[in-house]
Amino acid sequence: MKKLLFLLSGIALLFSCSSDDGGTTNSDFTLVKKAVSVEADGSEGMTFNYSYNGNKINTVQVLNGQQVKYFYTGNLITKLERYLTANGTLEIEVIYYYDANDRLVKEESKYFINSNLTTRNFTYEPDGSISFLAYSGEIGSITELVSTGKYFFNEDQEVVKIETTNVNTNSTLTTNFTYDNQNNIFKNVLGWDKLFSLTGKYHNVVTTTYLDANQVVLDSNSKQYEYNSAGYPTSVITTIGSSSAKVNYFY
Which UniProt keywords apply (predicted)? Predict the structure, then answer.
């Protein structure tokens, strides 16, 4: 259930990676203000409150004390901090580095609980895909290459496929995504169009499927949305195997 809530809440954007800066422009300033999970008996579960400075996201505050803070340089999200508890314990820090064209070229994540450091370096290919090299090690030490891969995008610059190859085992995992044609809850967050996550950028992920090197399905999940008159989700039910969980959104 915790895995489901993590996917549903939007905190999954913690682990976002790069994308081209394509997509649509609009004069819509709708911003999600709150997300509330729903327990099996229909009662409210975890609550996530979103705060902004204009259309720059400031914090995601969880009522159990967890908090995610965002930092900008100009119009770009350049740092994220996740605090584990209300007493201010910093769990994760993510630094985003951009090139002169405002494209994300490196993502550095520090996990203070276990002193782990992971980095991803991105290369923008002529065909529109993005290659990456992923490294892992301890904070302050030289990191080793652990995986390579590539991101593929549709015409809306949503990621539709990720191919990841483990350097040690030489095994490849493929992740495929499908989307609806409605509005993502983070669509109007400034700088969000430079990133992507498991929840999408402009539209909403409907299915996620994981396949091995022989294209055999290893796992999958699906999402079912309800929308308001403006095309933004008011709720989503995520199903993984025989388990499902619901989150309601408020604007």
Answer: Signal
Domain 2-20+32-250 has CATH 2.30.110: no
* CA–CA gap between residue 93 and residue 66 (Å, rounded): 14
Taking only the tens place, the pLDDT of each residue in 74-128 is 999 999 999 987 678 899 999 999 999 999 999 999 999 999 999 999 999 999 9
**pTM for this entry:** 0.87
Query: Helix (H, G, I), strand (E, B), or coil: what is residue 146?
Result: strand
What secondary structure, in 3-state letters, does 77-122 show? EEEEEEECCCCCCEEEEEEEEECCCCCEEEEEEEECCCCEEEEEEE
- Do residues 122 and 135 lie in contact, with contact meaning Cβ atoms separated by under 8 Å? no
Q: Quick: pLDDT tens for 190-232.
A: 999 898 676 899 999 999 999 999 999 999 999 999 999 999 9
Return the pLDDT at 19. 40
Cβ atoms 133, 146 nearer than 8 A: no
Return d(Cα 24, Cα 193) in angstroms, integer.
10
In sign, the C-alpha dihedral spanning 122, 126, 127, 128 is positive
